[in-house]
Amino acid sequence: MLSITSQYLARYRRLDTGEGTLLPVTGAQRRFVLVRALDPSGRPDLVPMFFAFPRGTVDPARLSAAVNRLAARHPVLRGRPAVVRGTPVLRLARPDAADVPVVRVSHAPGEDATAALRRALGAWTPDGPPLRLFLSEGVADRSPGPAVDGTRHGHDAAHDVLAVVLDHTACDGQSLARIVEELEAAYAEGTRAPGPAPADIAAELAAYREAVLLQLDAEERATSPDALAYWGARLRGSREQAPAPRPGPPAGGGPPSGSVSVLLPSPRAGVPFPELLDACRAAARVLYGPGHVVPLGYPWGGRPPGAERVLGCFLNTVVFPAATAAASSGAEATAEAWWDDLDRADVPFDAVVHAAREAGSGWSGRLDGMLTVDDTARRPALRLDGVEGREVHIDGRAVRGPFAVSVTQGRELHLRMVWDRAVLADHTARDAFDTLAGTLRATAPAAG
Question: For strand 293-300 and strand 369-375, is the pairing parallel, antiparallel, or unpaired?
Fold first, then answer.
């Protein structure tokens, strides 16, 4: 029996005319198409970066010229996900048709600048360009610190905030550093610089196409009968516990998401991933009750061997079935199961969902939680004409719920949780975070 990837490639090749206007998509991109289809409101998954600059230092015209040269070079930034004869593809626009908006965010009466940015991102329409920039003037920038429901404590200083926002189908975490680097370089060239040379555009297109085909080949090789049987058995008891997201604002008003964070000592050996998974299991027990097997996800992987460092979406989402029994198996058993999972981590998400359902699971493919880990050394600051923008958070944005945990590794671990307030009650989410942080403190290796 042909794998999902094999079937997809066969359908794509029947559509491919060789003109380069339709490109295949990776398993990660197919996952986001599936997730959007499962969302009643069709919300996109967005990857925003927010940079605070001293007021008045960002030139919108120069920024627009720079970002359009960037989009002309990279296929995924001038592509639009489409479904042709039932087959997901990336439909490319011409390089000279790249049109990335730079939106000056105005404030509605009675609206502060943070709420204005939340509103601007909330109005994102999925049929537009995958990269968009938003400039909000006079945002009150606050010093870093624990945040609850978007409220930070620290010294206010008026700044402009530039939001660089991508649809997740067009990027993963490994794309962000290159976007920052190339946006800096293009901005330094000014408004009169020519666009990329045709040879450079053609080379980037060839590199992107080759990287996607290498990725699909790796996914096809990973989707063996044994791997599918493993995931079927592993996820047979899994089923999402949170209700489907509901359209509209949360009950009681306020921003669509809540957040809370804490700084913890950084262990000597780096981020303790199995301990994080076990802490997420403990949080899921608070959120959903004992006696369930809750599907949690985390991104894993990278560009396939031999691929160029192209912009795109390649990281697979691996599913961790978190059993919420009153007595959890502990971090050691979690680590053992996690290592076994990583041996099959290249099986694409849609194939894993299919294997689970074939094995008897009632799981639809929605996740009850996400865990992501980031290294501050891989997230350089954005410098525009020598002025450095400091990366900041804009809390309270709509999130792909029900909850997500992010860990930023630096001199300390910045542990943060956000949740969809239309799905989870604030007080329950805060209790879950307290349990998460307490479990991690008790089980993580000693700090360096």
Answer: parallel
At residue 150, the pLDDT reads 39
The amino acid present at 411, given as its one-letter code, is R
Let me know the angle formed at the C-alpha of 312 by 100 and 129, rounded to the nearest 5 degrees: 20
3-state per-residue secondary structure call for 112-167: CHHHHHHHHHHCCCCCCCCEEEEEEEEEEECCCCCCECCECCCCCEEEEEEEEEEE
CA 327 – CA 285 distance, rounded (Å): 10
Whether 126 shows a pLDDT value over 90: the answer reads no
φ/ψ (deg, to 5) at 249: -75, 160
- H or E stretch at 54: strand 46-54
Cα–Cα distances in angstroms (integers) from residue 351 to residues 8, 67, 356, 395, in the given order: 11, 36, 9, 34
Please give the backbone phi and psi of residue 132, each rounded to the nearest 5 degrees, phi first. -145, 145
- Per-residue model confidence as pLDDT tens digits over 251-283: 667 888 999 999 998 877 777 899 999 999 999
> Would you tell me the crossing angle of helices 330-342 and 273-288 to the nearest 10 degrees?
110
Least Cα distance to 75 among 165, 170, 197 occurs for 170
Secondary structure element (H or E) that encloses residue 403, with its range? strand 403-409
* pTM given for the model: 0.90
* 33 — pLDDT class (breaks 50, 70, 90): confident
From first CA to last CA, the distance across the chain in angstroms is: 51
Question: Phi and psi at residue 327, in whole multiples of 5°?
Answer: -110, 100
Taking Cα atoms as reference points, which of 322, 362, 307, 365 lies closest to residue 30? 365
User: Which whole-number Å values give the CA distances from 388 to 164, 208, 357, 358, in the listed order?
Assistant: 15, 30, 49, 52
Token digits of residue 136? 């909000």
Give me the DSSP letters along 181-239: HHHHHHHHT-TT-----HHHHHHHHHHHHHHHHHHHHHHHHH--HHHHHHHHHHHTT--
